[in-house]
Amino acid sequence: MSKYSLAYLGIFFLLLGILSFVNIIYSYYFNLYLNVDSYLPALIVSFSLSLMILYFKNLNTRLTIFDKILVVIVGYLLLPIVISLPYYFSIYNISLVNSYFEAVSGFTSTGFTIFNNIKQIDESLILWRSTSQWIGGLYFLFSIILLIDIFDNNLKKSLTNFLSFNTSEVFKQSFKVFLIYSFLTLIIFFILKLIDFRTFNALNFALTIISSGGFKPVDQIDFLINSNLKSIIFSITLLFSFFSIFLSYNLIFVKKKHLNFFTEDFYLLFYLLFLIIILFLIIDVEFHIILLSLTSSVSNIGIFFSGYSNSHFLFLILVVIGGSFFSTSSGIRFFKIFTLIKFSINELLSHFKPKQVLSSKVIFDTTKIDYNVINKYFLTILVFILSLSLISILLSIFDISFESSIKLGILTIMNTVNSSLFGLGDFNFEELNNFIKSILIIFMIIGRVEFITVLILIKKYLLKN
Predict the structure, then answer these.
(1) What is the pTM of this model?
(2) Which of these, 14, 2, 19, lies nearest to 52 by C-alpha position?
(3) Cβ 14 vs Cβ 46: under 8 Å
(4) Nearest CA to 136 among 89, 82, 67, 199?
(5) What mean pLDDT, rounded, does the chain reach?
(6) CA 413 to CA 445: how far, in whole Å?
(7) Interatomic CA distance for residues 347 and 343, integer angstroms
(8) Angle at the Cα of 201 from the Cα atoms of 15 and 179, rounded to 5 degrees
């Protein structure tokens, strides 16, 4: 593994150390002295590992695509270990497996939780849960930049005009992401404060919304969002993790605004407006409920009111589709699906009208559809189907109903929290045996590292011949 790859992990261990220190200060400030000792192990381990990694000299400086994939996957395995320490050393007698499960769920921005009653845990641990999602969302965005060469070359145009990403360019774009990510978090926080959210709740929701996470500082959001206006504004904040993280940056700072910078966001806007109109016509509920259902699904956050039970399958489909590629949302991604549909229609029409010249471009974009990219998109959908089939079968074996297995499988792979919106609001993760929790942990990570990266590693190490 290269020096640069280890430095990538070292930065995030350092960030975890800083966040541990913040929670220690928070515990002292609010006289939560019993919690201080639970954050000290995370502080010591994270700072020690970051110093060892960042100052270790005798390392290979060559960086291959396999190094990049490995470091991303290793990060999803190791960083949650540090995150799990405050859970394990807390006063709540949380087992090691449950601690790691909660940590992975937070770091992958999934939102599954072993806590059945949030009111029973203290505010510092609630804040730690939310910050784990915030840093997990940042790690995901950095990973996209690190692995940018695996994906469509056109995606680079959302970042830079450079044809390739060297080490300095990756650091430059990553720092830009960090600033935008932090700025948008503050915007969400102030918006929630304007609609009369308590400061603590506004902060936790801001951290979890920007990361497309599902951890809540309360058991039910019903009493917080107690008016139609609050519901609409809250729903709009969920779209921050639906559109590209660079949308606001490009709108403000890109001087020569070429449509290539906004292609995916244009499509997402039309897609969103179309869904709002369709759902308003076919679902007989109030508009603010439709809007929250929609935005919570497409952003892969999943937070919703308690007791709602309608159109679960429809919203699960929206979860699978997901949002922008350069966002913290999951899903197959709408632009991929749209491109595949256009390509498929062109292929069908070419058989009926072979002499007709068919456009291989999409609206708002001057570049043509790359056939190699189309193959990757088809492969992504195929692997999703295989992954969903596998996790559903494994969950069904252990006395989870077939319907719940499929729903839970989709939410796990798409890193979306279970809620009444999907008919799984009362699902109890604490009661699951350790084997099922291990399965969920593996697939939460697989859903975050992108399916194609796993296939590349399999081809490299298992299918050499």
Answers:
(1) 0.90
(2) 14
(3) yes
(4) 82
(5) 83
(6) 8
(7) 6
(8) 35
